[in-house]
Design a protein that fits this description.
The protein is built from seven helices and ten strands. With 260 residues, the protein is of the alpha/beta class.
Length: 260
């Protein structure tokens, strides 16, 4: 379970300044179950919009997104979303934030508590169950957001630049933490980032998007051994993959700058 298919998807919308904007154009890709797929591309190319379409937060202009063969028409429990901005409820404790979706789904209190404990432990926050978001660092807040998404047991985890606001050292630790969780949980992951090192360190496959209108211009099957450690970024194979992505992106970034 957890297969994602994006079939000939286009997305357009009207703006006051620019009129009709085509964000995505006939974009297709397939993510098999349990794969960690990463998307990189220039700013404004539609990466986040693509995740919103898979999440059911936006509607396609043409084409369709499917999860396990079912056409996405709205948000669903089979998909969990993690945003860059954490999106925690400041008036709820860590435990209550993690339990929030379970409460909406009428999960019994005992099971809610057990699942919250499990995922709070998975992200290394045991002892902080009763803390409020204002008492946590940025990295800790993002760990709560990841635990909350996983507690609902989604088939697919959608992650929109979840570590983009973190300092480089915290970001590296969060990447390793996420990989450890993914190796245990074996969820399908669709992850958006601007960071090429992050994309290659995390992903089984990296999709490179063009400038707007966004489409896939290159696909890199990473194939680096797992489990991965951060010293892999100095290996010749990693560096060659990075050079390839940078080459693909260079002209597209120039196009994006001319569009904006």
């Amino acid at each position: 379970m957890g297969q994602v298919h994006i079939d000939e998807v286009s997305l357009a919308f009207e703006t006051r300044r620019a009129g009709r904007v085509v964000a995505l154009e006939q974009l297709s890709l397939a993510v098999p179950e349990k794969q960690f797929a990463v998307i990189v591309g220039p700013s404004g190319c539609g990466k986040s919009s693509l995740l919103d379409l898979v999440a059911g937060l936006k509607e396609t202009t043409a084409g369709q997104c499917r999860v396990d063969g079912k056409v996405v028409t709205s948000p669903g429990a089979d998909r969990g979303m993690v945003f860059q901005s954490y999106s925690l409820f400041p008036w709820l404790t860590v435990r209550k934030n993690v339990e929030f979706g379970l409460s909406l789904n009428k999960v019994p209190p005992k099971e809610r508590s057990e699942r919250a404990d499990h995922y709070i432990g998975s992200v290394g926050l045991l002892g902080f169950e009763n803390a409020y978001p204002s008492q946590l660092s940025g990295g800790m807040k993002q760990r709560v957001a990841i635990a909350r998404a996983l507690a609902n047991d989604p088939e697919v985890l959608l992650m929109d630049e979840p570590f983009g606001a973190l300092d480089s050292q915290t970001r590296s630790l969060m990447q390793e933490l996420l990989l450890g969780i993914w190796e245990k949980e074996q969820k399908t992951v669709l992850f958006v980032t601007h960071d090429i090192d992050e994309a290659l360190f995390l992903g089984d496959v990296v999709y490179v998007m063009s400038a707007r209108p966004g489409r896939i211009i290159d696909t890199i099957d990473v194939g680096l051994e797992r489990p991965r450690h951060y010293d892999i970024i100095t290996t010749p194979q990693f560096i060659e993959f990075k050079r390839r992505i940078m080459s693909s992106l260079h002209a597209e970034v120039e196009k994006a700058m001319n569009l904006n």
